[in-house]
Amino acid sequence: MPKKSYFFISIFLLFPCLVFSQKKTLQTRSTDTKITIDGKFDESAWKEAEIATDFVMIEPDNGKPIAEAKKTEVKIIYDNSAIYIAAIMYDDEPHKILKEFTLRDDFAVADHFGVLLNGYNDGQQEFRFFVSAAGVQQDGVYTESYGEDFSWDAIWDSHVEITNFGWTVEMRIPYAALRFPPEKKQTWGLNFYREIRRDRQQYSWSLLDRKIENESIQAGILEGIENIQTPTRLFLIPYASQYFYSNTSQRTYGEFRGGMDIKYGINDAFTLDAILIPDFGQTKFDNVELNLTAFEQQFAENRPFFTEGTDLFSKGDLLYTRRIGETPDYLTVADNETVLDQPSNIRLINAFKVSGRTKSGLGIGVLNAVSEKHSVHIRNNDTNTTRLETLSPLTNYNVLVLDQRFRKNSSVSLVNTNVTRNGEFRDANVSALVWDLNTKKNTYNISGNFKYSYINNHFDLEDKKGISSYFNLGETSGKYRFSIGGVYASDDFDNNDLGINFQTHYHGFYANSSYRIVNPNSVFNTFSANLNSYSEFDNRTGRIQSGYMRLNFNTTDKKNDYFGFGVTANPLNVHDFYEPRSFNEERFVIIPDNYNTYFYFSSNYNRKWALDINPFVTKFNEKGRMNYGFVFSPRYRFSDRLSLIYNFTFNRQNNNIGWIAFDENDNTIFARRNRITYTNTIQGKYSINNKMNFNLNVRHYWSFVTNHDILTLQDDGGFTQNTTYTENRNSNLNLWNLDLTYSWWFAPGSQVSVLYRNNSALFSREFNRQLESNIRDAVNNENLNHVFSISIRYFIDYNTVKNSKFYKSFTKPKERIHF
Predict the structure, then answer these.
(1) How confident is the model at residue 17 (pLDDT cuts 50, 70, 90)?
(2) H or E stretch including 132?
(3) Residues 466-484, mean pLDDT to the nearest whole number
(4) Per-residue pLDDT tens for 43-102?
(5) What is the Cα–Cα distance from 149 to 587, expressed in whole angstroms?
């Protein structure tokens, strides 16, 4: 064969590989034209902008080009204040475009367009901005370690138009909503997203290969942003709130609160967020449960300041922000004393956080909060006298994070948390080294951490020092994946002053494997199978604390209905060192081998009527001991504006065994008991438009426990019958919560919120076991607390004020008068 033929054949074979390995690039250009965000693109600047097109499917058929009838075209331009995005989503059936109205950050049943931006182009973090066909905004931060976090909210503008050829989106994203290095010539990571909801299809401009776990590293490139002179990033968000409280035991009274949030851009990479006299009175209620375990109940963080932009502070899992302002539990009183005015939380004086990243990839985060001193009155029930006791001293909470990224897919972090309390109260300091290392092709991952805690106790209590660590090695690409690793915690490891940790003095080993399909087959749109195994041992005795194997399957069929099935086998008796509540967890109770299975079905939410069902059962190798229950949750979408979701959960535990008390001889008393739990919730929403919503959240929770055999724990983890303990330790917790809210985003970053809330919490040892009776008690006005509040937050941009006629006239130099 002639040499020329070899040459051309080689070029022919290599060309697809070269093209595939090259990242898509979009060239943007600057404009001096004022861009009106109206979805029409009639400014001259748009006509000369380069077009991004040729979208490909993310799922279900990964890599398949988008159909010509539904092609997508996107342009980007910029000025000194923001970047602008214009997107046309063609659709040959525009009347079928789904566009449900919802609250912000709720994707619901609607088509979507999104832009994914990484100012550092480091393959590790993206700021993601989405808008639905109904004009509802969603925004969040994506990291390889934690996925998408939609608790972050930025202030940006968008407009949607439904047309006879599809729909259009125009967006203005100010630089204040982004992070990028102070370079004259910017190179950003870029991707675009489109969801065609009726077909449950998702597309991206730069292919997101489902065989690769890290999405950000697969982004394309945005070039052309040069010599921008970004304005001062200073935003003030003052607020005013009025609360009215009422119940049958006291008169209605009001409370006014006012304060301010401050956001200041130290530079284009670092931002200061601060709250002065914070108000969290309108946050979502907690889903409290009857907690019979040895561990506290963990709640989700609902306070915006502690949920927005906190991905950097999540490194090492040392921070549980609910500790900040939490009512402490270390105040002890005598048996004949009662705390008269126990608060539900400790008020914060202020809080701030500074976070950002240098051009070399070093992320720096500082979070600080100060809570006020709070004292309570304690009454002696025998003498009827009272004394004042400090419940919580003036307390400073501090978090420092240094996170170095490198090679666009790896990082090493140093994290420190510190709690300092005024006076004779314990202080705490915890540090962690965290690593997340990936091979160049993102096929293998080595991750882990090493943590060290130091507790500075007072009085005659000894200081505590402890360590905790884990190590993980895994394959993170392809259809078949695996991971293996181990965990270790010493006896005295304690990060609970600013974090949350349930177990210590243990070590464990795990192995996981999984399989998934990337493209649909004749039966499934998606399919995955996961096999997990774990073994855990007590450090001091070597006794096994946990040992299981779990197999589960998750599938989506051709109609986009979801099915899940799983089986967990715990084939060995294990030792629980925590349930006996003994000093230093020295005693244990034996948990018999058991087997659990569940099934989950969720019908396609595109339909007006949809249903979720989840039955589950656990059988123990012990006579009559079994857990079982189900979740039943229908939902109906009356229109694009009105929807209702009902959820009913039933859970029964037969012959469960658990701790109830210590007797006068310091014997550990357990009970064989039955427990039944009913949970009813209703979620309803009515949206007037994409800025104005009514939302209803109702929850009734009822759980009761009846003890029928009293047992004494033995040293070998078994029991003997106890016939002398007679105290009633049955439990009945009856909770009711109702929130009805109205919210109106009347301007970018500015909101009016109106909340009506009522709630009750009833606990008793003697109770009626009729569900109807407990519901009546829960909603009886004699037991209800009522709250009505109105809150107004107003967003002030320093640049807007600075450029206003009023400001200019006020700051204009006065003309001198000569005599």
Answers:
(1) very low
(2) strand 125-132
(3) 96
(4) 999 999 999 999 999 999 999 999 999 999 999 999 999 999 999 999 999 999 999 999
(5) 41
Residue in 476, 469, 465 with CA at minimum distance from that of residue 508: 469
**pLDDT tens digits for range 25-59:** 999 999 999 999 999 999 999 999 999 999 999 99
For the stretch 385-443, pLDDT in tens is 999 989 999 999 999 999 999 988 899 999 999 999 998 899 999 999 999 999 988 89
| Cα 390 to Cα 314, 373, 425, 437, distances in angstroms | 31, 8, 10, 47
Q: What is the model's pLDDT at position 13?
A: 39
Find tokens 């993980």 and name the residue.
472
CA-CA-CA-CA torsion sign (177, 178, 183, 186): negative
Per-residue pLDDT band for 805 (boundaries 50, 70, 90) equals low
Residue in 432, 404, 435 with CA at minimum distance from that of residue 418: 432
How many other C-beta atoms can be found within 10 angstroms of the C-beta atom of residue 352? 17
**Identity at 190, one-letter amino acid code:** L
Report the alpha-carbon distance of residue 455 to residue 427 in Å, rounded.
6
The DSSP string of 188-206 is: EEEEEEEEEGGGTEEEESS
- Phi/psi for 9 (5° steps) reads -65, -40
Dihedral (Cα; 278, 281, 284, 290), 10-degree rounding: 110
- Dihedral (Cα; 796, 799, 800, 801), 10-degree rounding: 70
What is the chain's Cα-based Rg? 30
Q: Which of 211, 267, 41, 279 has the alpha carbon at shortest distance from 793?
A: 279
DSSP one-letter string for 569-616: EE-S-EEESSTT--GGG---EEEPPEEEEEEEEE--TTSSEEEEEEEE
Nearest in space to 520 (alpha carbons), one of 57, 56, 59: 59
- Copy the structure tokens of residue 154: 């930025």
SS3 helix, strand, coil % of the chain, rounded to 5?
10, 55, 35
**Residue 801 amino acid letter:** V
- Consecutive H or E run containing 799: helix 798-802
CA neighbor of 509 nearest in space, from 544, 561, 481, 476: 544
Q: What is the pTM of this model?
A: 0.91
